[in-house]
Amino acid sequence: MSECFNLWHQRSDYQTRPHCFSKMYANQSHTNITVELQYQGLMERVLFSIMTTVPCCVFLFINGTMLFTLRSKPVFRETSRYILLYNLLFADTVNLAHSQLLYLIAACRIRMTYPVCGVLSFFGNLTTVISPLTLVVMSLERYVAVCYPLRHATIITIKNTGMAIIVVWAFSSLSVLTRVLLLLNFPFAELENLQMKDFCGKESMLLDPMSDIYEKTFPCILFASAGVTVTCSYIGVMVAARSASTDKASAKKARNTLLLHLVQLGLSISSTIHNPFLTAISKVLDRIIIVRIQIILYVCIIIFPRCLSALIYGIRDQTIRPVLMYHLCCQWKRSPFLSHSTKAKISILITS
Length: 352
Hints:
There is one protein chain. This protein has helices spanning 2-10, 16-24, 26-30, 33-36, 42-70, 74-77, 80-107, 114-147, 152-155, 158-183, 209-241, 248-281, 287-303, 308-316, 320-328, 340-351. It is an all-alpha fold. The chain has one domain: Up-down Bundle (Rhopdopsin 7-helix transmembrane proteins). Helices cover 76% and strands 0% of the residues. It is built from 16 helices and no strands. One of its GO terms (molecular function) is olfactory receptor activity. Residues 62-313 form the G-protein coupled receptors family 1 profile domain.
């Protein structure tokens, strides 16, 4: 690694720098799913592509239906909690589609240019930051609803919710802009061509030592801050639940929602720390086995968590559930899976 830093500051042959830093991040590339695909056979790549694409398409369908549901009724469009849920679900859906797109591009052995890969990578970073920040805002909204019920309507307004979403997107965009500025230190203009030698992935764009430091530091600060905020909100709700003036049912529901937010944050964190885990086990396991383990982890901690919000709110929320069922079941009147009470609720919500 020290040799790479010396080459970075001393050598004038810039063509050797990408090669040098690809060696520097060799351990990371062992755990980069888009790079490891080159070690798979054709049939295995096709099989794993099917195994990841099918659940991804199912979850994209569920998420897309949920997004449509959240825009189909005035009660969803005019309630802060559902507006925040729409923002969270939108970011998760885009991130899910982005991750699977990069996977399939790598499975097809397509190598991109640095600018194209950079745009895709930074786009994925944008939505990755939006999700935990939105969870923080949603947790604070539940905290205000339980601890300050009389002021909830004046604090959590549509205008304030919109401002919070703008701040979330602005902060996420700022983190992407920081990555872009750090990447500009690399002298791309002096390369013979911009074609990448490896498959596109997040680690492929860590061409500068500062980019690597930022990539390791920023997620830790982000998720630590989000975790502390959600935990404090949960403790506040727990304390308020003991008060005689607090609605016990509302407090219990908010407490369970905050616990689910913590689970979602935990899954998001696991998606950022699974690379070091795979690096550790790569020292004792065969390379092909590492690839297979990583694909399993990809489905469990990358694909599945991106559909968790739709499943949680689609099942738990009594207002969303009947409308979501209506949109998921095209011919709901003939469907044997819907009870008469559910059909009655759907009819009321659809006609209201």
